[in-house]
Amino acid sequence: MAHDVSHQTGDVRVCAQTLARHHVTEHGDPTGPVLLLAHGFGAGQNAWNRLLPHFPDHRVITFDHAGSGATDITDFDHDRHGSLTGYAEDVLAICAALDLRQVTYVGHSVSSMIGVLAAAAEPDRFASLVLIAPSARYIDDPATGYLGGFSYEDITELLTSLDSNYYAWSSAMAPVVMGTPDAPELGAELTQSFLGTHPDAARTFARAIFLSDTRVVLPRIAAPVLVLQCRHDALAPEAVGQAVAAALPAGRLVHLRATGHCPHVSAPAETAAAIHQHLSALSALLAPSTRSGASAAAASTAQLPALRLA
Question: How many separate helices (H) and strands (E) can be counted in the chain?
């Protein structure tokens, strides 16, 4: 059962403000291994509702990014949140407020790279990362041969359309992002989530996402990282997932049967199974060691078995 977080460390007032600002909520077993779930653009922590029942033995923490979910638009800072670094700082503030260690961070879409930035800044907090449908750069880079899936003109057109009419853009874009034509109700659900995001925050967040390039940070992540790749993902095609996994020192790519960009919504059981396999491998690796944090995991990442779905 979910419950509002009430235990803080350090400066109680600052910690309480941080937790309240992001509507931080805990689920599952408060004594279990920590999972920190970070939602993507146009969503809130409710996006994880289908995944949560698969982790009853974990301490699962969810929250809303600034400008998303149930947050107050007055807490959204267009300067701070005009880059992914601002969101990563928010994640670290939540970790500090709860004094979280040995965290497995699960990020969807843009939150994958937000997690990468957070782990690069404070690696000792993170035991591992799970990146669902990640992209380190959406725009193709002809100079390096990198394929992000979009030209600069594509992204410019996308952002212009969003600026012109966010509500029309959301209605058209959300079903494409969900990518489940056989389950149109899921696209409709994501549309409503998009429409619930404040347009001003959405415009700033979208620019931070689609104009970002975090490829240079990936090689700095020593912790084991699971990269989950879906079929027919309109935002993060196969080449993108491969590039992310290849750039990570301890990255492993798993292909899901799920289609679209949101497998935690459209295929929660399959997504949970992949995460559980990753956690089991990580637990087996860390069990013989008394060392803590990502440094212990990084010392023997070669021992991690390949992750496969049956």
Answer: 11, 8
Any idea what DSSP says for residue 73? G
d(CA 269, CA 44): 20
Task: Report the percent of the chain where pLDDT is more than 90.
Answer: 86
64 is known as an active-site residue: no
User: What angle do helix axes 199-210 and 152-164 make, rounded to 10 degrees?
Assistant: 180
| Active site annotation includes 54 | no
Based on the residue annotation, tell me whether 124 is a catalytic residue of this protein: no
Q: Which of 23, 81, 261, 264 is catalytic?
A: 261
Q: Pick the catalytic residue: 58, 233, 264, 278?
A: 233
Which candidate in 27, 108, 109, 112 is catalytic? 109
In DSSP notation, 231-268 reads ET-SSS-HHHHHHHHHHSTTEEEEEEEEESS-HHHH-H
pTM score, whole prediction? 0.89
Give the Cα separation of 207 and 121 in Å (integer).
Answer: 22
Give me the pLDDT at residue 305, please: 33
